[in-house]
Specification:
With 199 residues, the protein is an alpha+beta fold. Helix content is 41%, strand content 11%. It has 8 helices and 7 strands, in the order ααααββααβααββββ. The strands form 3 sheets. Strands 3-5-4 form a 3-stranded antiparallel β-sheet. Strands 1-2 form a two-stranded antiparallel ribbon. α2 packs antiparallel against α4 and α7 crosses α8. The protein starts with a helix and ends with a strand.
Amino acid sequence: MSDAESRTPTNTDVTGPDATLRPILAALANPAARETFARVTLGELPADRTSRQERALAQLEKAGLLARTSEGWKVDDENLRRLLQQGSRRRPNTGPERFLTTDGRIDRYPSQHDERDTFLRFLAGRVLAADETLSEAELGSRLDALTSDTARLRRALVDHGILIRDPAGTAYRLAVAQRTGPGSGSRTARCTGRGRSVA
């Protein structure tokens, strides 16, 4: 990954609402959902509802704005308070976590090489244990918790020598230099070339 690439925003890197807020914004951008939410708030939701209102209710429930109870629909106050508390948490000003959203996904990549390397090592430590070997599908599933562009993150981890890829390109594990914590042992691996092939 080049310095130019890291400075160029992509759809997955630009600063924006956290994943927990997107469904709420999508629901409130829907006129039918807004009207239905207002009716529930005012206690004016009709018992004989249209299919349009039912779809709006389903969207509002999925977004965490409404909850279905034995007495009918109500505003999900508990979830809204939780989201408010989550939103009030300040993102750190220093360290690799400042490049993450409040829900732990990648907000942007550092532009400086050393910072980017530290950030990638931080991410690798969150998804792989020292002695794990994962298939490409397994690795992709874990990286999906960090970004929607898992291919880009996987390539960056390999290019920075943080992950070792086997010669077939189907299995991945942490490089020796990344396994520096307690209990990491004295295992060694020989890396060759940009792809960091396991001997």
